[in-house]
Design goal:
single chain; 370 residues; MetI-like fold; 2 domains; 14 helices
């Protein structure tokens, strides 16, 4: 017996759809999940409640010095941050010349943002701008001494400016060096192979502080008497070499994951070694190790705080100096507020790099999904 009447649609149970269904499936699927969820919610309540109490409810929002934040039970001392914000961002860079810093940031964002957004045309030209044109513009603007711009000694640089300069230059310089070292370690030429291995193992065997001391104190001893390097430049060299050694091992892991058949296919096509590496092997290897590469970049960004050891005041260093040396802003909560501010800034940059790398990995791996 047949009928033309359509079968009525049966909706799923209300408790299995929507937010309630999601909670039931992901948070309260089993008794163990339910207990862990309740414990997690309690910890979030305790931690978030304490933070809101310190940062908002008991915080001081206005004041001219540390006395405003010295009352009993005071929370965060936000006037300290407002008063020192220019110092934290730019160091002792002259106030009248800080427009050069902001222009440098604008030029960087103008090239970097379109380069990072998928679908924007002209990637080749944007890459050439960021690799060749922008570094020259940034150097001219920040250091001065050209086109009528007053020269600003790097000793006056500080705060977030130093952090970004060291991190960006270190990342840009260490990435190609890391690729060359990884390829050198796999080379069949003994001199290149053992030189690469020796450099990687020596650098990875010492802390970054040692590299900074070497670049700042010992490097000038190997140079002619009339040749000197700026202290910031020495730090950039030390950071770049240190990061390159770690990146080399990350990239080498990606190279080893590529099947030998890829190289043999390149040989069958008559490709040279640079062509095989640049067109076949490296694109696949770098895609495989994106998480490791970005992890190294994040570690490098956080390690910029170690330049304080050689007398360069990055964001964390200048916050620490302001907390310890400015008696005007002395209060029980000043140091906590300053370090919290520095931590939030570092977290924003590191979290941004992490999320962007995840989006790149997802986009490049679209063809690998089954």
């Amino acid at each position: 017996m047949t009928t033309d009447a359509a079968t009525p649609e049966i909706r799923p149970p209300r408790l299995d759809t929507g937010p309630v269904g999601w909670m039931k499936k992901n948070l309260f699927a089993t008794p163990t999940d339910s207990v862990l969820t309740l414990i997690g919610l309690y910890l979030i309540y305790v931690l978030l409640g304490g933070f809101i109490d310190w940062a908002i409810l008991r915080a001081t929002w206005t004041g001219a010095d540390g006395k405003a934040c010295s009352w009993e039970g005071a929370g965060a001392c936000w006037p300290f941050i407002w008063n020192k914000l220019g110092l934290f961002m730019n160091g002792r860079y002259p106030d009248a010349e800080r427009w050069r810093i902001y222009l440098t940031y604008a030029l960087a964002l103008g090239g970097l943002v379109p380069l990072m957004v998928p679908g924007v045309p002209g990637k080749l030209y944007l890459s050439l701008y960021m690799l060749l044109v922008f570094p020259v513009l940034a150097f001219v603007l920040l250091t001065g001494g050209f086109f009528g711009l007053p020269a600003v000694d790097t000793q006056l640089w500080g705060g977030l400016l130093i952090t970004l300069v060291v991190a960006c230059v270190g990342i840009a310089a260490s990435f190609p060096l890391g690729i060359l070292l990884a390829l050198g370690r796999r080379s069949k030429l003994p001199i290149i192979k053992w030189a690469s291995i020796g450099f990687i193992e020596i650098v990875r065997g010492v802390p970054l502080v040692t590299m900074l001391f070497f670049a700042s104190v010992m490097l000038p001893l190997f140079l002619p008497e009339n040749v000197t390097f700026d202290k910031l430049l020495r730090a950039l060299i030390g950071v770049a070499l240190f990061s390159a050694a770690y990146l080399a091992e990350v990239i080498r892991g990606g190279l080893q994951a590529i099947p030998r058949g890829q190289l043999e296919a390149g040989d069958a096509l008559g490709l040279s070694y640079p062509q095989k590496m640049g067109l076949i092997v490296l694109p696949q290897a770098l895609k495989l190790v994106i998480p490791g590469i970005v992890n190294s970049f994040i570690a490098l960004f956080k390690d910029t705080s170690l330049v304080l050891i050689i007398g360069l005041f990055d964001l964390l260093g200048i916050v620490q100096q302001s907390v310890q040396s400015d008696a005007k802003w002395f209060s029980p909560s000043t140091s906590t507020t300053g370090y919290f501010f520095a931590g939030v800034v570092f977290w924003i940059f590191c979290f941004g790099m992490s999320r962007y790398s995840a989006s790149i990995e997802k986009r490049l791996g679209a063809g690998d999904r089954r």
